[in-house]
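Researcher: Going back to the complex we discussed earlier. I've cleaned up the inputs and rechecked each line, so this should be the final set. Can you rerun the prediction on the complete assembly and write out the structure?
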Amino acid sequence: MNILVIGDVCGSIGCETVLKVLPSLKKELNVDFTLINGENSADGNGISPTSAEVLLKCADVITGGNHTLRRPDFHAALDENERLLRPDNLENARYGSGYCLVDMGRIKVAVINLLGTIYLEHLKASNPFLAADKLIERAKNDGANVILVDFHAEATSEKRAMGFYLDGKVSCMFGTHTHVQTADLQILDGGTAYMTDLGMTGPITSVLGVEPSIIIDRLKNGSQEKFRLAEGKCSLEGAFITVDDKSGKATSIKTIRIV
Ligand SMILES: [Fe+2]
Ligand SMILES: [Fe+2]
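Model: Rerun complete. Updated structure for the full complex:
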């Protein structure tokens, strides 16, 4: 099967890019299953019922990250729609989960969403490796043929370690959160497609989506100006993966970057 995974969508400008680019891209690549990380898809941070609704027009599952629980008006949606995920290992999270199973008839796809712990200590997430073990077992018990893992993490070391840990156990593990697309795509020895970070879908002239002058002022002068999404031309970034339906092993992974 053909799978498209899209990196962190930034604000309404990113959502508009998804709506503009994804329908024709999915047709062109003959995509069977689409996953989008939507944790930053609302303007001003987080994900809202409105931005999730927009992304669900183009995706089968929306994954989250450290900002997913930020808006109280999104909490109910997490409980109501099992295709809206937040990292499963977030401790004390009272809404939603980081696992869903999509039954496509011939194929069942399980999606797992986890949070890294390095440089994200303040979020109080439990051990993502142990959480992965538990959820993979659940996916197997659910009869999943294909398992996808979105590991939302800051440190490249933690993401690569997780990739090797999951090799042979899942079809694909990719990282999100750092918003900069990495060039280390590979099929690991056990048949797991891997990429450290998918990149982002949002304004190109930005620091991870934010207006550069604000970040420069903060880093240089200690300014506390509120983050504002940058404007201008956007890119849509992610990866295209092909998976053998029977074995659940990946056969290829390619970079997606559309400007
Ligand atoms: Fe993000
Ligand atoms: Fe994030």
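Model: Worth noting: The longest strand covers residues 234-243.
Researcher: Good, that matches what I expected from the previous run.
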